[in-house]
Amino acid sequence: MTAKVRIATTSLAGCFGCHMSFLDLDERLVKLAEVVEFDRSPITDIEHASNCDIGLIEGGVCNSENVHVLREFRKNCKILVAVGACAINGGLPALRNFIPLEECLTESYLDGIGVENPQIPSDIELPLLLDKVRPIHEVVKIDYFLPGCPPSADVFWKFLTDLLAGCQPALTYELVHYD
Amino acid sequence: MTKTLIIDGQTIPFEEGQTIMEAATVAGVYIPHLCHHEGFTPHGSCKLCTVKVNGRACTSCTFPAAEGQEVVNNSKALNDDRRKITQMLFVEGNHLCPGCEKSGNCTLQAVGYHLNMLDNHFPHFYAKRAVDSSHPDVMIDHNRCIFCTLCARASQEKDGKDVFAISGRGITKQLIVNSPSGLLKDSELDVTDAAAHICPTGAILIKRTGYQIPIGERLYDHHTIDEISFAVSGSRPSTALPPSVAVESEKD
């Protein structure tokens, strides 16, 4: 029996909407599970990726932990895929790029309406924020891109079935959306 | 006798004085474009409509049609260039489609779809640009301006006004408004002006209309830009092949 294709997934500066859309594969997930198994993913709770065939990355890069996770995925995945608008162009989290980071923190943790015990979090356990939210292709090499907010389940299905069949993945017109 | 030229092997007629773009449009051949708009003086700045005319690169919206021209339009090399140009437009401005009310009706987005553009390739500028919401009925979001000058041309040529212009060069280029304060509210712009409705992106928007048609039911959600552009111009539907099956006749 041939070994199953290993897939790892993660959400960086994303909303998990792309993961929810992936779950919209519904009964097709059963078919998928016959040929793939999941490594690091919110689906498995495995903490670190190791020797995977495909890595699916949702979300852009907004802090130092995102950068570490992204590099871990690149190191361990033969094929790395940017999933969704945020991974591709920073998306809605990147709207903070137009406001200086200090102003963002001040508004959220010191001056904002209804803030109690105002203080900017600085625990050593917390990852440091980057000055700007970045798309993932600016940090590591990305092999494929699945646009959409989120990409529909059909996009995941077309992409994965193409790849599993050994074809060059191709998204038809109806599958390409930026919204 | 009718004069003809050849686009991707197809013989099409033209009338003296027409540009290649005009002849192609009448014949139902789609050439991707953003700054070109039927009925306005051609500008030739977006470069998306670049074709090879007898082996030489020309913007088809400005280049005159001539007898016997051999034009390459839908080739892999040209569409690769067009995709790169579109990607550059996306990273130069701030085109975040999920948060834009023009999404689905946006020509820039539709050109991206047509070219099967899946990523933005280049590093993002995240340029800090302003929003002018001073006018009671119309707003400008400079984040989405691609400097096509259609609003400036519409204001001069259709509205008989001079509300918009492009100022500066290169990366400091910006859309400016002709008013003492520089704000739209102090300009002559009226919500019924052609200039308020011509924007191909979400840079000039009519207030309180953005979500009258839900996302998913909009112009380019189910129709390709080549279908739409011929529905608008009234000529017959394009027989042009999508870029993925483009002719490979071009010699580099």
Structure, described:
The complex is a heterodimer of chains A (179) and B (252). Chain A has 179 residues and is α/β, with parallel strands linked by helices. Chain A has one domain (5-95, 130-175): Rossmann fold (3-Layer(aba) Sandwich). Chain A contains six helices and seven strands. Chain A has helices at residues 17-23, 28-33, 64-76, 85-89, 101-111, 153-164, and strands spanning 5-11, 36-38, 52-58, 61-63, 77-83, 129-134, 144-146. In chain A, strands 2-1-3-5-7 form a five-stranded parallel β-sheet, with helices on both faces. The mean pLDDT of chain A is 96. Chain B is α+β, with helices and mostly antiparallel strands. Chain B has two domains: 3-81 and 227-241, Ubiquitin-like (UB roll) (Roll), CATH 3.10.20; 94-221, 2-Layer Sandwich (Alpha-Beta Plaits), CATH 3.30.70. Chain B is built from six helices and ten strands, in the order ββαβββααββαβββαα. Chain B has a five-stranded mixed β-sheet, with helices on one face. In chain B, strands 6-7-10 form a three-stranded antiparallel β-sheet, with no helix packed on it. A two-stranded antiparallel ribbon of chain B has the order 8-9. In chain B, a hairpin with a 6-residue loop joins β8 (164-167) and β9 (174-177). The longest helix of chain B is centred in the middle third of the chain and has 17 residues, at 76-92. Classes of the chains: A alpha/beta (179), B alpha+beta (252). Chain A binds chain B through residues 82, 85, 88-92, 94-95, 97-98, 132, 134-135, 137-138, 142, 144-147, 149, 170-171, 173-174, 176-179, and chain B through 90, 94-100, 103-104, 109, 112-113, 116-121, 123-124, 126, 128, 215, 221-222, 224, 242, 244.
